[in-house]
Description:
Blueprint: E1 27-28, E2 34-39, H1 42-46, H2 63-77, E3 89-92, E4 100-103, E5 115-117, E6 127-129, E7 136-141, E8 149-155, E9 161-165, E10 175-179, H3 191-204, E11 209-214, E12 227-231, E13 243-245, E14 256-260, E15 268-271, H4 276-292, E16 297-302, E17 307-312, H5 331-334, E18 337-340, H6 343-348, H7 351-361, H8 365-384
Parallel strand pairs: 1-6, 2-7, 4-18
Antiparallel strand pairs: 2-8, 3-4, 5-6, 7-9, 9-10, 10-12, 11-12, 11-16, 13-14, 14-15, 15-17, 16-17
Subcellular location: Cytoplasm
InterPro entries: GDPGP (IPR026506), GDPGP1_C (IPR058865), GDPGP1_N (IPR058866)
GO molecular function: GDP-D-glucose phosphorylase activity; guanyl-nucleotide exchange factor activity; hydrolase activity; nucleotide binding
Amino acid sequence: MVLIKQIGEQQSLVKQSPLLDYSKGLQVSNRGISVPLYKFGHKNANSNENHGGCSGFTEEHSLIDTLLLAQWEDRAAKGLLSYDVTACETKIICGRSKFIAQFIEGWNSKHSLRHVGVKDLDPSKYKMMNLNREEVLFCVAESENMTYELISSATVLSKATLIIINENPIEYGHVFIIPSAVCGFHQLLDLNSLEVAARIAVHVNNCFFQIVYDSSAASTTGNYLHFEACYFANPLPVEMVPVIPVLGDWENIELKIFEIASYPIKGLVFKCKENFKLMVSLVAEVCSRLQDQDVPHKLLITDCGTKIFLFPQGQNEAMVQGFKTGSNPSAWECVGYFVFKTKLEFDQATEESILKRLTAASLNNENFQALKQLCCFLASKMLLA
């Protein structure tokens, strides 16, 4: 594990991805297809509107929430899913942590995004995403207007964010979110892509809607940066554990940073209801520093886009019953949701085995302390800017 370096004043904040110039590399092979297009609107991008978090269940669905659910259900009815995820057996594993286990027979954890094209490192070349019309539920893009809008049918744009159905879902409404404008040959998370994902959570405005990011998932998706999202009927296990304030006089500042307590894998929580862009900028910068040092990490965007969990990881080479050797937990596993593809694994899953797996992947104390110091330094600098 590389020790996280101390940061000096001379280092800049929130650098753009060096591969941003290669954004034209993401192209849909069926360029002529038309799908619904949701546009954010400038008013929502910079104001505090809709950034209040979830205060409870509401029967009124937002426009993009209704669109996502309708499109996903339409594709499910057309047989695009490998199985009926609502019929899969799910249970709470006995123990204090209340981890969630799900049995999906023969589940394929490899993502279904298909790519064709070159595999060398020549930046003048690119891969193409091979999609058919039915796989793309809709697109998301910026609007010239002040408020959000929905266009019922529009040609897929190279810079639009694609919302694509996951044919191997783990929960209702499981989709891929692909910020096309920042996708190149490599997978790098930057401020633009994280802001798009978080703004989608804000606009969906549904407490049951969760978004995750996995920095180590590049090998299974052709190196295209992506997020995953789906709906959960109940809070995820990690959302139920206590947190400890990290950043100074946290009650009197607009940005809050907490450490997750009493949880097997170390993590941080960033929360900001008054300044959405500040929170996203800080998390993007922290992830950039982790990327620079090859530290695997996962994100959970929750509470209608006002809260982001960060799970930095060490290298896990331990064999734990029911799990593969030498692999870090996925983003879904970090938040407490585990999928098993055999009934035996599902029946034998225990809290003890899961705790061992998550603990083995956790960042060590020295590096985690350095990460907390880095977060406080960056947050203080941004707050004073």
